[in-house]
Amino acid sequence: MPDTNKLSRRRFLKATGGAATAAALAGCTGGGDGEETTTDEGTSGGSTDTETEQSGGDSDENILQYTNSTVTTLDPVAMTDEASSYVVTNIHQTLVHYPQGEARTESLLASDYSVSEDGTEYTFTLKDATFHDGSEVTPEDVIYSWERLAGSEHTRRSSFILGTLAVEHETKTKTGEDGEEIEVYKPGTLGVEKVGEKKVKVKLSSPFSSTLGMIAYGVFSVHPENIVGDVEGYDGKMDYNEFATKNSVGCGPYKLEKWEQGTSVDLVKYDDYYGGEVKNDGIHWQIIEDDDAKWTYVMEKNADAFGIPTAKYDPKLVNVEETDDVGRDRGTYGPVRNDSTLNYSAVSELVTYYIGFNMSSVPKPVRKAFAYAMNREVLVKEVFKNRGSSAFHLTPPAIYPGGPSAYEEHVQSNYPYGINESRLDKAREVMEEAGYSKDNKYTLQWTQYESSTWESMAKILRDQLTSAHIDMKIEKAPFSTLTQRGRQGNLEVYTLGWGADYPEASNFLKLLNPSDTITGGETAPVSYLNWSEENGDAAQKATDAWQTVLNNKAPTEEAAKARDEAYVALEEANWEDIGFINLYHPKGEMFWYDWIDYKPPGAMGGASAMDKDITLSERE
Amino acid sequence: MSRWQYLLKRILLALPVVLFGVTVTFLIVRLGPIDPAAAILGPENGSGAEAERIRRQLGLYDPLWQQYFDYLVNLVTLNMPNSWVISPGTPAFELILIYLPRTMWLGFWSVLIALFVGIPLGFYAGLNPNTSGDYIASFGGIVWRAMPNFWLAVILVSLLAQSKDLLGFEWSKLLVETNIVTPPSIAFFNNPVEFITNPGETFTELLKAIKQVAPAALVLGSSSMGNEMRIGRTAVLETINSNYVETARAKGLSERSIVWKHVFRNALIPLIPIITSEAFILISGSVLVELVFAINGMGYLFLQASVQGDLPLVGALMYISIVLLVSVNILQDVLYTVVDPRVGLEQN
Fold it and tell me: Which residue from A109, A136, A179, A436 has the least number of CB within 10 angstroms?
């Protein structure tokens, strides 16, 4: 729903949070038990049933109305897009979650957890929950669900559990159709086991400081054992397609009522939800892709809470009244076309948009000229209508070592290319030193998404760089083409963005590990910089810093300190060699009418927040 | 050659055309620059080991001839696997069946508008040439034709959304309450018996569905409406001045039977290919109109599937479109012989 900009239909799945460190987890343990008690009291009473009957006649009255873009699947392990995540988060439950999209983790399906001394074994205790089909949630369900995430033919995030989280497992060698030998996950070897009636133990191959932050991601949702037969040892209760589209059974606050593909999704509240009363009767998402159509729809008051497309957004209508305790700007927006004044909330998301260079083909003076010419403040204001903040680091402020203030301080004292000013004289100087002139321009190709916003930004930059003897050609491509060409090393300058999978700087900075940026080879690169010692003096510094990160993954204070230093070193190495020019961190903005008691999401966005506590009064 | 023999021959000749079409589709999608794995994972994770694994899982590293062979077999047996990107839990042909009805509903009304407004208007103009009525109709037709779909659609949505201020009535509350955008609900077709058992409610539903699709149909039908008007006018003018009409008039035939029996039928001939080619929008829809009115139908599906390299879906969509186009062409040739007996099927 929040429309950060018009990048593409598939935007970032933002399962992120702030510092999900041991402190936040301690809170999760304590709070869990208390919550559970209230839960039982809440659901066992007949009050919910009576309410349902009372409002039975007016089916639409107490149902939340939203818009969404195309939902692709309701199978958690196959889910990769934000639109599906909005729905799946309300149907399925993870062991821990980001409460209301805030930047911290809290218990959800797990009531309690403990960690072994060496930080590699996590034991979770499950709450007394039931699935929508009436069966009880057991450790076997967790084992089965995660086995699907690791090894099902339908999984699209196996790297989260096998790579990032690195749950213990075995691999086997498989010969591909093309004759190549590859290592794949060996089914049934995942280090997740039952250790008690309600207890499940997860064994990691090495300690990982963001374990809880990672398993709060929606793909780690728990669904009933043997619901589908796409992993070894299970024959499946239903056909896969039925589970993924019509009968997605979870234990969340809502049951799937109907998903009409390309039109709408309807959820209805689950009366036996273990986590307390669901305060509305259901949720309706209307699927609308076009900005004009969406705007018409919300202006007709057909949706209660929504994002506003940038084309329809007017920064002058924003009136911020206060900043709340989790860093959200709250206030009003309006009056809009239908004369309403909307409620407003904005939060800086854990996303960074950047310009990337293929360093092996674009010489350093050119990259430097770009860095000098870039005035982020003006671009964000003029092009993105102030819906974001300037990015100097790849790591967003909320998860930068030391937080937003350290971020700011580091920029102010160390950023070498001018902060929020366009130093075209410097850019020209650098280029002329390298032998370029009016008659000897450097020509390069800029490749970006199919987005008019980004195009206008590219045009501003192109015009500025003309005076620095750079002739920039702008080209647009769908990102599936863009990344393909990146992989083959056929990009020169490109724009992309990165949204956090888990709330730690390493999730961002892995894009700057030089050996993971080499294109065209056997290994699959994560970014397309081709950063090596031949084209950057700081490549070795970055490689060393990344090694330090890898050597210090444990959730200890000492390791955290070493990591933090390495993160800053990586950012500085990037400044020195200019692989990425970081552009901006978008703001997630939500708008809603007065009749909905909307709970605006925190930094990781509404796609990972449940809607069970939202109430409605009479619509206008 | 009998009509049936002719038909059989045409069908046989159509087979290579279909094969060629689906082959070109396969080559463009598979050899083109689109990476479906990146489309699945989104821009932030379109790289790295996970994408590599998905590529393997989708069989993108299998030998190309094998991928092609599987693809052809799946098409012919109508047994395409699940869509790769758009809906990984739904087989491609099934997905088409989900998106098709709303597009057909929209296409049906837009063709109807074109047929029942454009052609009569053109005939009227042709029968009354150089009168003020002709000028108004002709000029209107040209202007109507000249307005681009995407512009007209946006303007119409905007106008209807603010109809209370601009037009004096509220479109969304007119007759029955409906949304201005979003697809109409045509669920009543699933249970047509309701029209008899529960007429009141079902007819309201029908009215709602028509009202909701009307603005989009008007926009989608607008260009062909203008076309048909102009071609209809020319065709009528041509026939009405021909010798046999003069002869008929000399024989003392009534104007009415001249128009209906001689002029009308002959003037329809040039319109046949126009009308049949329109039938195509019934299936393929229109990306722009569907997007602006938030009716996510076949046009939208086609676009998304193509730009995201969703091979099973693009293949299935192309297959159906090509088969349809070819059969409409055959149908058109057969229709010629029905309307105009002079057109024979024999080769001379």
Answer: A179
